[in-house]
Amino acid sequence: MDFLLPANGLLFWQVVIFLALVLVLAKFAWKPILSSLKEREESIQNALDQAEKAKQEMASLKSDNEKLLKEAREERDKILRTARTAANQIHEEAQVAAKKTADKMIEDAKAVINTEKQAALRDVRAQVASFSLEIAEKLIKKNLANDKAQKELTETLINDLKLN
Amino acid sequence: MQSEIQTLAHFTMRKPFFTAIPVILTLFFIAAIGFPIYAQHEAGHHDTTHIQAGLDSAGATHAAETEKFSANEVIIEHVLDDHQWHFAEHLVLPLPIIVYSAERGLAVFSSSHFYDEHHHEIEYNGYKLEGRNIIFTATGEKVLDLSITKNVAMLFLTAAVLLYVLFAVARSYKRNPKKAPKGLQSFIEPVILFVRDEIVKPNLGHHTDKYLPYILTLFFFILFGNLLGLLPGSANLTGNIAITLSLAVLTFLITNFSGNAAYWKHIFWTPGVPLLLRIIILPVEIIGLFTKPFALTIRLFVAITAGHIVLLSLICMTFIFHSYIVGIGASVMVLFISLIEILVAAIQAYVFALFTSLYIGMATAEDEHH
Question: Is residue A59 part of a domain?
Fold first, then answer.
């Protein structure tokens, strides 16, 4: 059972050598190895993160562009719509105004025509009256050349008056 | 390979019990092969002829030409530590002996002084090898032995390989920062990331950075130790209980020194437990403190040692039976078991690191953790 008994010398050397190994390797091997591994991992991670970020930025840029485009389109539509309504309104207003003016002109014209007509009628009436008077004068002058006729007329007129 | 480790690790993540299978398998093999040989070894000590039971069954014809081949000696010699590095029959590397005693102070000399030209053990300068201990020849007392033994040499080698590989990787990170990994770097990086993201982070959360260097070192030390231990001629470093015990004790110390109020409260005054039950719960909790490092120690030690014993037993069978057919069969089996051992090497490193981060995570978790 020799091999179950640890030898002092070997225990001593093992502890010394192993502790020395741990210290030396920790300082000169593990430290540079682990730190450069970590560094490399971090740089890979960073690169991946940046790629992801760039991708996201691209996507957001694209969506921004689309949004902008959409907004522009909406703006355009809105402008067109307002323009159309404005045009319509102006058109309608113009129509109404024109109609009003036309109506007024017609009205005026009618009024003028009426006045003119009245005036003309008045003129015609006056003329007719004067013509009638002249005719009547002439007739009367001719009819009433004798007394008998004058008398008859007077009687007729008086009869007419009584009837009225 | 890296993907294999990852798939393996993911596999084990999903099914923690899977990790137990190779261990159970190797344990079964020890039971089947290792222990009888070990038992023979025990018997062999008393019976100086060193003739194996296996040899007897192989045929009496070979008995005459038996060189004193003893599988148990080969295996036990490999599994245990030694003061010299025995590669092959005549290829032995003497290692430095460092002993200290209050009476005689520090002494450093080569382990070759303990052997004469016939490889017999002799005394040197008042010191003598007795088994695997160094004693004073005069008094027979044990001295403090800090020798560079086979396992200590293996430990230096493992540490050197670890430093070389990880410094090279660290350098390539400094040379081309923020670039895709290349070469060795791309082999080690997934393992580091796996330890960080799958073992430490789920258990330690925002404490990860603080404990990560320790757990990474632990993981790579065990992994490299296990894999280097599989090389022919190398020592059974991570299958030595002194190694696993030191690692487990370090984890134990770190766990308990970083334990927060909630952790200690949970141990000494477990919330929501009736008073009478506390009499039972308290000792259980306190024992639980120590079973954790104990389990860590034994698990790694057994898994690796068992693997080595199985491999060597299979190889030794060829020499026991003196047969080509057994040799071919054993080689196929050795290949198969070696592949399993590579798997076990990774799994045990993973398990040790996982349990370490689990324990530290439990000790540092915030209050709502139960």
Answer: yes
